[in-house]
Amino acid sequence: MAYNLKLAERIRSQLDGIPVVEKKMFGGVGFLLNGNLACGVNKDDLIVRVDPEKHTALLKKPHARPFDMTGRPMKGWLLVEADGVKTEKQLSAWVKEGVEFAATLRTK
Predict the structure, then answer these.
(1) CA distance 85 to 101
(2) Which domain holds residue 75?
């Protein structure tokens, strides 16, 4: 299944002015800041890389679940279902989480 192109475009709009690089990954697209994934799209879901210290709290938000493609979910990586990013306000909050965390990581 292809990834949600409309969601990818909405993310691009949220990232306008932020020096991200777009890269095909996870069967979708990722947006990297300084070589580190901030967010992306997998099928119809938003992928967000977050501070591992906030992982458990963010999982309690509606429509969020662990990112797990291999049977071993990684702490600090979340998937947000389409219903969790219906509005620009919802999407913006998640994208901000990803960008803020990626900005704390060393450049790759």
Answers:
(1) 19
(2) 5-104
Can you give the pTM of this predicted structure? 0.94
Retrieve residue 85's tokens.
């990013």
Q: Tell me how far CA of residue 106 lies from CA of 63, 77, 91, in angstroms.
A: 30, 17, 25
- Over residues 9-67, the pLDDT tens digits come to 999 999 999 999 999 998 899 999 999 999 999 999 999 999 999 999 999 999 999 99
Query: Are 66 and 77 a contacting pair, CB within 8 Å?
Result: yes
Number of compact structural domains in the chain: 1
Contact indicator for 99, 38 with CB cutoff of 8 Å: yes
Residue 58 sits in a domain whose CATH number is: 3.90.1150.30
Of 64, 44, 47, 68, whose CA–CA distance to 56 is shortest?
64
